[in-house]
Amino acid sequence: KNIYTGRGIRELSDQLVSQIAAGEVVDRPASVVKELVENAIDAGSTSIEVRLDGGGIKRVSVADDGCGIPREELTLAVKRHATSKVRDLDELESVASLGFRGEALASIASVADLKLTSRVEGSDAFSIMDGEISPASGTHGTRIEVSDLFYKTPARRKFLKSESTELAHCLTCIERIALAYPNIAFSVIVNGKSVINLPASGTEERLSRLMPKDFRDAHRAVDASVPIGNLYGWVGLPTAARARADNQYFYINGRFVRDKVLSHAVRQAYNDVLHGQSQPSYCLFLDMDPKRVDVNVHPTKSEVRLRDSQAIHQFVFHAVEEALARTTIVDPSSGEI
Ligand code: ADP
Ligand code: MG
């Protein structure tokens, strides 16, 4: 006998719907950090400050100097399926912002305490928490504070690891995003102590600051253009290879992605110089028409679907192969050999 029959079909409450959705996007403090920092970037910020307490479980706070949210839109900002980033199917198919699902803030608020304070240029600051709006103080931009992650869903809280492990995931996440946005300054404060301070800079400098020394010391720059897009960044020489694929970064339009076609293209370019199971180190940025990449595949958006994946494979393969084959001494101080 089926235990689910005879109980009647019922609609889920908004709260439960959000908690189910939160299961897809928020699985640990690092995913809160990712969503909040991405929102800050979408808001056009030039400087982003992240505070983490208790591994981010106790508190994640992200403050930016972006466009802010007007008072009359604060309620919508934390409502499910409400977004300022897409309006119709056409915009969805060419979306250039990091967010577009309108789910992150609502999801986070359903599993933790969320306080949002914002001020748009020429107006006063306001806060919203638990649906209540109140006057606040602050410079222009937005600060979102998330406290006591998963206290509303104790079963999920049990899956969290130690504070130091959760903190490490948060820092990895911030560095991964910061690599792709060198023109934005990032600062990270952990339990009241400043641990990361990245001034606004160019790609080379940001990579130099965040990449491990062996990679910094032995890489080639990639800078290639075809009508389909531009590819730039660093590829490690064989001496910077690893046993594990833990120093591989690939971004499409500023978004970190994992994609078999892309990683295969890069690995294939190393076939002549890297043998066995060795894993190349690389950090590559592919900028292309957003219409050619579908990011609406998975809630966390790290999986994508590429149109013309064959052509992109060819392009990446040739650009990396060409960079690795380059033997000219460019400038020893730049880390190129
Ligand atoms: P999405 O990013 O997919 O639109 P979110 O739930 O992350 O959905 O955010 C909802 C909306 O709140 C955004 O579309 C944006 O208008 C606004 N918002 C969120 N964070 C910020 C921020 N830091 N600065 C300005 N606006 C923001
Ligand atoms: Mg968002």
Automatic annotation (TrEMBL):
One of its GO terms (molecular function) is endonuclease activity. Residues 207-325 form the DNA mismatch repair protein S5 domain. GO terms for biological process: mismatch repair. It comes from the Bacteria. Keywords: DNA damage, DNA repair, Endonuclease, Hydrolase, Nuclease. GO terms for cellular component: mismatch repair complex. This protein is involved in the repair of mismatches in DNA. It is required for dam-dependent methyl-directed DNA mismatch repair. May act as a 'molecular matchmaker', a protein that promotes the formation of a stable complex between two or more DNA-binding proteins in an ATP-dependent manner without itself being part of a final effector complex. Belongs to the DNA mismatch repair MutL/HexB family. This is DNA mismatch repair protein MutL. It comes from Parasutterella muris. The gene is mutL. The chain holds residues 6 to 342 of 624 of the full protein.
